[in-house]
């Protein structure tokens, strides 16, 4: 009985094997293009892929001189919060974080290359992996994948997200990036401050040199012309001349009186000589003032031109000094600073990779690819049969 019952079973085994082989052959392309990649993805994400921790921080760039309106509108509230004042500076900081300069600084301060090359990380995720050589450019491409710096337009804050294989590494890299960003803001402030103040200081220097040159020109003119102040000296000479003219007029009146009353008075010749001497002195004083070549009046025009130049130079120096004070105050008002809204966190659990979702993505992608190819082949076969 046992032999009789065993014979049909052994006869069915080849039939079952051939049926299974036929089923496999019929679905071999589906297995190769869909089932196999999905199975490999399940093996990788389930047993090989390393955990990745994500550290996040947020910041804004503010200015202490930001205008605040008393009217309670949405636009004013946004401006009061400091979200629009440092928009340009925020974009500059984000551009810096995504740059090669930031990566170079991270290599020096945070040993970023070592942190992305741990032995416990899987061969596909760490740097350098199968697809990366240990060059700086490849490290930069890897850095772009692991560090995300963007602007949240809804919240008005800048976000830095750093991925790493340990929570501490993600935190350290994120914190270092924030420190580097603060240093960049300080350098930008120093550049703006030094540029504006340097220009104002240069104007003050030029104005001071102009005042100095004007004073030197006046001193040289005084030494050359042997005059201290032509205007005052001319006034002094004219005052002396006027005094002598008054004295001569008095003597002349006395002389005329003597001639009428005592024509033979022996004092008349002496009085007449005295009047003549005073007239000579008056003429001498007048010649000092209005002489053709050596008179004070001929020298007064050049001196007044020098005085006008000195006055303009002094006014320019005063204006330049005021501009320097204003430039320093303006530079102080235009200072921007980075305010940390959210400090970098030390994640307590890995957020990546999303293993189940990634497996589903691989399955969906390969399945779509399979159906696209299948429909393409079916279409070709149908056209070939019609032909």
From TrEMBL:
The terms under GO molecular function for this entry are:
protein tyrosine kinase activity
UniProt topology in membrane: Multi-pass membrane protein
Q: Which domain of life is it from?
A: Bacteria
GO cellular component terms attached to this protein's record: plasma membrane
Q: Which UniProt keywords apply?
A: Cell membrane, Membrane, Transmembrane, Transmembrane helix
Compartment(s) where it occurs, according to its Swiss-Prot or TrEMBL record:
Cell membrane
InterPro entries per record = Bact_polysacc_biosynth/exp, LPS_length_determ_N
Provide the transmembrane region boundaries: 29-47, 356-381
Where the record annotates domain Polysaccharide chain length determinant N-terminal, the positions are 24-105
Entry-linked PANTHER family: FERRIC ENTEROBACTIN TRANSPORT PROTEIN FEPE, TYROSINE-PROTEIN KINASE
- Name used for this protein in its record: Polysaccharide chain length determinant N-terminal domain-containing protein
Source organism (scientific name): Novosphingobium lindaniclasticum LE124
Q: Read off the lineage from the record.
A: Bacteria, Pseudomonadati, Pseudomonadota, Alphaproteobacteria, Sphingomonadales
């Amino acid at each position: 009985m046992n032999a009789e019952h065993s014979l049909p079973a052994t006869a069915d085994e080849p039939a079952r094997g051939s049926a299974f082989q036929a089923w496999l052959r019929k679905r071999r392309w589906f297995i190769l293009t869909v089932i196999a990649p999905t199975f490999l993805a399940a093996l990788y994400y389930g047993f090989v892929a390393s955990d990745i921790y994500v550290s996040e921080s947020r910041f804004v760039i503010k200015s202490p001189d930001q205008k605040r309106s008393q009217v309670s509108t949405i636009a004013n509230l946004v401006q009061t919060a400091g979200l629009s004042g440092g928009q340009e500076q925020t974009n500059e900081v984000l551009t810096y974080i995504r740059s090669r300069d930031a990566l170079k600084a991270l290599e020096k301060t945070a040993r970023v290359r070592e942190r992305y090359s741990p032995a416990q990380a899987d061969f596909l995720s760490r740097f350098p992996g199968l697809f990366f050589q240990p060059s700086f450019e490849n490290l930069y491409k890897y850095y772009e994948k692991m560090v995300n710096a963007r602007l949240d337009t809804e919240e008005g804050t800048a976000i830095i997200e750093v991925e790493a294989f340990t929570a501490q590494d993600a935190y350290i890299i994120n914190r270092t990036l924030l420190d580097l960003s603060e240093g960049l803001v300080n350098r930008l402030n120093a550049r703006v401050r030094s540029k504006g103040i340097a220009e104002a200081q240069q104007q003050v220097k030029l104005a001071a040199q102009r005042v100095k040159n004007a004073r030197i020109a006046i001193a040289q003119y005084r030494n050359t012309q042997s005059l201290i102040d032509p205007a005052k000296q001319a006034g002094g000479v004219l005052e002396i001349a006027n005094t002598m003219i008054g004295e001569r007029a008095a003597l002349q009146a006395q002389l005329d009186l003597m001639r009428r009353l005592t024509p033979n008075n022996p004092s008349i010749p002496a009085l007449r000589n005295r009047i003549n001497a005073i007239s000579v002195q008056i003429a001498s004083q007048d010649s000092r003032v209005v002489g053709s070549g050596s008179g004070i009046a001929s020298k007064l025009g050049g001196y007044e031109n020098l005085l006008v130049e000195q006055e303009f130079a002094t006014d320019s120096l005063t204006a330049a000094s005021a501009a320097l004070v204003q430039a320093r105050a303006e530079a102080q008002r235009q200072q921007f600073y980075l305010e940390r809204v959210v400090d970098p966190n030390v994640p307590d659990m890995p957020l990546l990779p999303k293993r189940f979702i990634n497996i589903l993505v691989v399955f969906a992608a390969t399945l779509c690819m399979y159906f696209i190819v299948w429909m393409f082949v079916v279409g070709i076969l149908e056209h070939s049969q019609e032909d």
